[in-house]
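Private note to self, pasted from the team thread so I don't lose it. Backbone tokens:
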């Protein structure tokens, strides 16, 4: 009850500020003289999968504004991955935005906004959509940059003054670039966005026993955000791994963060095979990238490691439930998508006011082990 009251007060406050501010907001177009804009803030407060989907935009800002200062406002988990970005040396500053921790309170958000306002940014690029979209577009407005580039959807995001509508049926990474181009700028599309150091690659090889002739399948059975809507049942993963161990000559490494350690231990106990390697909660994010990079196949839910596999172009079997593959998968060249087509699905498509109401998750439970095995066979065959 208290949470509902707080949410209602927050919504009322947002509505009031937006109403008072909207008359000062209008659509703008950047001048072709990109030398005039000296300070740029790229605001991506989501998970590391969201960061991966704006790396081409960061590349494009560096290309269009070679003489400008570029700052990144990132979540703590994204900060851990930015070290692998090839263009990191062209980024002048990385600022942490811990929306689940330090910056969760209104007071800390206001202090951050005040600090960023003093920096006098000329341009803010903030590609938020869904939960957090309204709050972050308001934050961008209050920071005070002349040009605020972001999405709108319904009544959300209209405080951005360079904006396009967020769509359900297009990959988010491509929409992020389209949003950049809406500012009259030229997008660049580099394929090799990440560079994994040789020491990380070597450690990934040691951890997964790559010295033997067996293939390596990496599995991520978890998800960080709204996991019930994204995760194939753990007992299905156990059955899948048992079948892969029996029918395929492969080592299997399971990965995930520390919050997913119980799932990793449950799988390890249930499978009881020395070719199964449990790395859940035991490796860093850059090391996770190295493990996915050297693997022959990745299997996982719609979550950050899936985005890593996509970026690294690792052959992938992607399992979707309530989310939409069209928003995630740019090309099926490296990916076999599994999704049950149900009337109620997708139900989670980055709505700003999403509420978790589903109780049975039929979309995920109706996907069988045989469905996934079919994808494994196809992707391993195509790799040979």
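Design output:
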């Amino acid at each position: 009850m208290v949470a509902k009251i707080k949410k209602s007060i927050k919504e009322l406050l947002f509505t009031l500020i937006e109403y008072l501010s909207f008359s000062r907001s209008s659509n703008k177009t950047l001048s072709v003289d990109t030398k005039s804009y000296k300070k740029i803030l790229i605001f991506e407060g989501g998970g590391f999968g969201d960061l991966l989907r704006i790396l081409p935009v960061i590349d494009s800002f560096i290309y269009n504004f070679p003489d400008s200062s570029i700052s990144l406002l990132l979540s703590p988990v994204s900060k851990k991955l930015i070290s692998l970005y090839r263009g990191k040396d062209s980024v002048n500053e990385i600022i942490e935005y811990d929306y689940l921790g330090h910056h969760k309170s209104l007071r800390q958000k206001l202090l951050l906004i005040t600090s960023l306002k003093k920096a006098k940014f000329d341009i803010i690029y903030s590609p938020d959509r869904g939960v957090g979209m309204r709050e972050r577009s308001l934050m961008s407005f209050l920071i005070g940059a002349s040009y605020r580039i972001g999405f709108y959807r319904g009544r959300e995001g209209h405080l951005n003054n360079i904006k396009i509508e967020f769509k359900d049926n297009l990959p988010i990474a491509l929409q992020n670039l389209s949003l950049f181009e809406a500012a009259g700028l030229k997008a660049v599309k580099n394929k090799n966005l990440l560079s994994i150091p040789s020491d990380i690659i070597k450690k990934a090889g040691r951890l997964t026993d790559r010295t033997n002739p067996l293939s390596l399948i990496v599995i991520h059975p978890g998800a960080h955000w709204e996991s019930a809507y994204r995760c194939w049942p753990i007992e299905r993963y156990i059955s899948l791994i048992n079948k892969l161990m029996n029918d395929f000559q492969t080592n299997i490494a399971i990965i995930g963060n520390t919050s997913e350690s119980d799932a990793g231990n449950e799988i390890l106990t249930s499978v009881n095979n020395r070719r199964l390697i449990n790395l859940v909660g035991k490796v860093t994010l850059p090391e996770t990238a190295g493990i996915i990079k050297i693997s022959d196949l990745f299997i996982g839910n719609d979550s950050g490691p899936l985005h890593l596999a996509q970026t690294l172009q690792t052959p992938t079997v992607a399992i979707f439930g309530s989310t939409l593959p069209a928003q995630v998968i740019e090309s099926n060249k490296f990916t076999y998508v599994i999704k049950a087509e149900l009337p109620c699905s997708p139900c989670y498509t980055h709505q700003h006011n999403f509420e978790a109401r589903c109780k049975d998750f039929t979309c995920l439970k109706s996907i069988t082990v045989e469905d996934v095995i079919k994808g494994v066979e196809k992707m391993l065959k195509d790799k040979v």
